[in-house]
Amino acid sequence: MARARAGDRAAFAELYRAFAPGLFERVLMPKLGNVQAAQDALSETFRSLLENIEQLDVSQQGLWPWLFRVATNKALDMHRSKSRTGRALANCERLLVPLVGADTLGPPDHVAQRARLANNVQRLMAELAPRQRRALELRFLQDLPRDECAKLLELTLGAFDVLLLRSLRALRAQWELHFTPSERGEP
């Protein structure tokens, strides 16, 4: 720890090699159940260690309890973020269905209905901020994984999730602005 505090990268790498496998296998994978999410949380855990290493006192309990607590919190944060994003995605799916029109009972399979849906979505997307529009295009139109979208937009995964959620909210606001309650399928 003393060498790592002094800025010795090799010492920090030793800490990583000593603690990362246990955190990954015993804390993050059981809590997250997804390799990519566990790797992201592990990376964030060690970023926190690097940011807090100067003031961190591990003389009483050692480093493991601190890393365990941080990793657990990172996993919980990811669950919360995923839950919020999942709810937003479900809302987005629900909002797209009425754009086809009240006369459509099932999925849009007619050429004219698809064209109408595409035009309505393009109209709404055009009114979003460019970064919001790009986030939605990458995630939903190109169907890229969240981590890849984040890289393309030069954001952390957490920042991308926030941008995506805000973009969905902005799209919903545009939808409510442009379509009457009856066009939205509301009473």
Give a concise summary.
The protein is built from eight helices and no strands.
Please, could you describe this protein's structure?
The chain has 187 residues and is mainly α. It has two domains: 2-78, Rna Polymerase Sigma Factor, Chain: A; 82-178, Butyryl-CoA Dehydrogenase, subunit A, domain 3 (Up-down Bundle), CATH 1.20.140.160. The radius of gyration is 22 Å and the shape is elongated. Helix 2 packs across helix 3 (35-52) and helix 7 (146-152) packs across helix 8 (157-178). 73% of the residues lie in helices and 0% in strands. It has helices at 2-5, 9-32, 35-52, 64-96, 111-126, 130-141, 146-152, 157-178. The longest helix has 33 residues, at 64-96. The chain contains eight helices and no strands.
- What is the helix content? over 70%
Main sheet summary: none
Mean pLDDT, nearest integer? 80
Shape: elongated
Unreliable segments (pLDDT under 50, ≥5 consecutive)?
100-108
Number of helices: 8
Structural class: mainly alpha
- Secondary-structure element pattern, one letter each: HHHHHHHH
By CATH, the superfamily of the largest domain comes out as PhyR, sigma-like (SL) domain
Taken together, the total number of domains comes to 2
